[in-house]
User: Which sequence fits this backbone?
């Protein structure tokens, strides 16, 4: 499974660990992706979505359908 948030598009970022001696080794910073079941009151059903913790906070505040409208997304594009 990819480590990508379907709502925000957050993906892993790459960079370097830098030691005290300035030795550099490659590493990845992964987004905090969670698999979450969200209730859609408009359709009276559950949907399962892989989203970042930041997107989850926003969805809990606004609601999923309002978030999708604000971002210009369709439900069928984000539901697994």
Assistant:
């Amino acid at each position: 499974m990819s480590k990508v948030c379907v709502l925000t598009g957050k993906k892993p970022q790459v960079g370097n660990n830098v030691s005290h001696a300035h030795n550099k080794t490659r590493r990845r910073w992964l987004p905090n992706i969670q698999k979450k079941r969200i209730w859609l009151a408009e359709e009276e059903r559950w949907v399962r979505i892989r989203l970042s913790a930041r997107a989850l906070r926003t969805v809990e505040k606004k609601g999923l359908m309002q978030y999708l409208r604000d971002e210009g997304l369709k439900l069928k594009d984000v539901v697994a």
Q: What stands out?
A: Helices lie at 53-62, 64-71, 75-78. Residues 13-78 form a domain with the Ribosomal Protein L24e; Chain: T; fold (CATH 2.30.170.40). Residues 53-62 form the longest helix (10 residues). Residues 13 and 58 are 22 Å apart (CA to CA).
